[in-house]
Amino acid sequence: MPGLLKSTLLNVKHRLIDLFLSSSKKAYYHEVLLRNNPYYRALDQDRKRNFIVRTHLFLVTTTFGSPHGFPVTLPMKIILSGGFVQITFGLKADVLDYFNRIMIFSGPYSYKNNTRRYKGDVNPMTKTINLSWPAVTHGFEDYKDGINLVLHEFAHCLVLENSRRGYLDRIFDESTLNVWKQQGKALIPEIRNRKASLFREYGGTNLMELFAVSLELFFERPGAFHREHEEFFQTMSNLLNQDPRYAPNPVLP
Ligand SMILES: [Zn+2]
Q1: The domain that contains 22 carries what CATH number?
Q2: For 63-90, what is the mean pLDDT?
Q3: 102 near 131, Cβ under 8 Å?
Q4: 100 plus 161 within the same structural domain
Q5: Are 160 and 78 part of one and the same domain?
Q6: Per-residue model confidence (pLDDT) at position 2
Q7: Distance in angstroms (rounded) separating the CA atoms of residues 232 and 68
Q8: Are residues 166 and 176 in the same domain?
């Protein structure tokens, strides 16, 4: 589908949801996001309105669950959905087709026959995003440390989902993604040698982790990221079609 038609349809879809979503529900979403999501808090009125629509859409198209009866409340679902919305706010992708199941754990968890403890992971076998709830809330409470579990795991989802979608339905622009990969490959040895200290060491693991770690920085420390790695920041910005330094309206025109 041509890009212009696609974005027109997207606008119509969002306007219809806006029309049918009750004002009390909108007010509830607003309250929860205002309290828990710094990205949302900084948006202007029009952007807040669209953010709520996208949050609702993601929430109703995603299955949330937990093992062992850990209660998953509506505010928890709103917080998680808001994390997805902020990283895709400049993109046409407003839901996940493959990874639309989120399992929430009461704390760090491990897999069978494996002693490693996880705070979060994306499991391509079960098409599930697993998250430890205390790490989720900590990510948004400290929004300046460049570490945010939800943004990190959704970053993995976007890359995995992008590669699974058909050519015309991709989340990212192909050529921009290639530029990102080239720049990323050059950056990894610098991170390993501690020459790019803004990035935590884990980002030097491979391109997949670098993408997730870069995305955390992009949202939580955009000023420092732009100052220290302007070219790479610009590529991230082109890829996500937004610049979080302009907090009230970060989406690129
Ligand atoms: Zn990761």
Answers
A1: 1.10.472.150
A2: 96
A3: yes
A4: yes
A5: yes
A6: 65
A7: 43
A8: no
Domain of residue 248, residue span:
172-253
- Residue-level pLDDT at 4: 75
Q: Rounded to the nearest whole angstrom, what is the distance from the C-alpha of residue 5 to the centroid of ligand 1? A: 34
DSSP-assigned letters across all residues of 41-100: HHS-HHHHHHHHHHHHHHHHTSEEE-GGG----HHHHHHHHHHHHHHHTTSS--S-SS--
Judge if 25 and 132 occupy the same domain: yes
Stretch 166-192: mean pLDDT: 95
Asked whether 200 and 224 are in contact (CB, 8 A), the reply is no
**Do 150 and 184 sit in the same domain of this protein?**
no
Same domain, 253 and 164: no
Q: How far is the CA of 44 from the centre of ligand 1 (A)?
A: 31
Q: How far is the CA of 163 from the centre of ligand 1 (A)?
A: 17
Give the Å distance between the CA of 154 and the centre of ligand 1: 9
Cα(134)–Cα(235) distance, rounded to whole angstroms?
A: 32
Q: Check whether 113 has a pLDDT greater than 70.
A: yes
pLDDT tens string 3-52: 777 778 888 999 999 999 999 999 999 999 999 999 999 999 999 999 99
127 Cβ contact list (under 8 Å, min separation 6): 98, 99, 100, 101
Domain boundary (171, 188, 221) is at: 171
**Are 180 and 82 in a shared domain?**
no
Q: What secondary structure letter does DSSP report for 147?
A: -
In the reported structure, the alpha carbon of residue 122 is separated from the centroid of ligand 1 by a whole-number distance in angstroms of 8
**Domain tally for the chain?**
2
